[in-house]
Amino acid sequence: MKVxxxxxxxxxxxxxxxxxxxxxxxxxxxxxxxxxxxxxxEAAAKVADEIVAAGGRAVGVAANVLDIESLKKAExxxxxxxxDCDILVNGAGGNNPKGTTSKEYLFPEDLKNQVEGLKTFFDxxxxxxxxxxxxxxxxxxxxxxxxxxxxxxxxxxxxxNVSSMNAFTPLTKIPAYSGAKAAVSNFTQWLAVHFxxxxxxxxxxxxxxxLTEQNRTLLTNPDGSLTAxxxxxxxxxxMGRFGTPEDLTGALLFLVDDSASSxxxxxxxxxxxxxxxxxxx
Length: 281
Ligand code: NAD
Prior knowledge:
Elements: E1 9-13, H1 18-29, E2 33-38, H2 41-53, E3 57-62, H3 68-81, E4 87-90, H4 108-112, H5 126-154, E5 157-162, H6 175-194, E6 200-207, H7 216-219, H8 228-235, H9 249-256, E7 268-271
Parallel strand pairs: 1-2, 1-4, 2-3, 4-5, 5-6, 6-7
The structure holds nicotinamide-adenine-dinucleotide (NAD).
């Protein structure tokens, strides 16, 4: 998909990761100057180097989306390198095993026997649940506060948040991540309304199932074959495959392009091979 983002400054949080590095590259290939923000400075620098090597303009910046001072430092670095942010992609996020139950369902026997390693709903660690909520929700809200004031002052800009399938219907075992991404989708709508008078559009992409480092052990066995969960997911994905990071770039470019999606504001766009449309029957 061809859109012209020449002269725009894009900031991608979590840009050192698997999905957002590809999103960052697609923004750069469309002419944007891209700041790759990531907790892992080396990962951010590597993606920026790859963009520059391909003829684009990019800078890698260390930033923690949960730390306002770190974000302010990053904002100053981006401003010095490229100017004010026009496009913000809130991509940093993810799950944590501490907010995850070991089994899909709670059975009566799980309450009676203390099975080594079994983590039921009752064993969930509040700190783990809080970590996942903060990373996904606050980690979307704080960069928006830091990077979008200048957008509001300028009267134009675009924000794309990264939600998930579990925001529509929670996935088994991951209550914290499901709730946190539901909050991201809800916040996307709230912010679209709140910013509607200052020319900023706010939308989200909800990726379906993409095989990445975060979920590789959940979806595949060491020999590469699918786990039971991986099989269940594919059985519920009418297109019959996992997504590739490149599947997301058309949706991203469409949502950030002020002419293509000029009146689209507050939507959560599934990119999921029809997973969210399928009842299973
Ligand atoms: P990833 O782990 O490859 O990328 C996430 C990046 O965020 C990493 O580079 C990590 O260093 C960075 N990060 C983590 N905490 C941070 C913090 N506090 N501050 C700054 N950066 C931080 O994961 P991914 O699979 O590419 O996921 C990208 C986004 O897509 C996430 O929001 C994830 O929840 C979402 N998502 C992924 C899938 C999937 O199937 N992989 C599906 C739906 C949604």
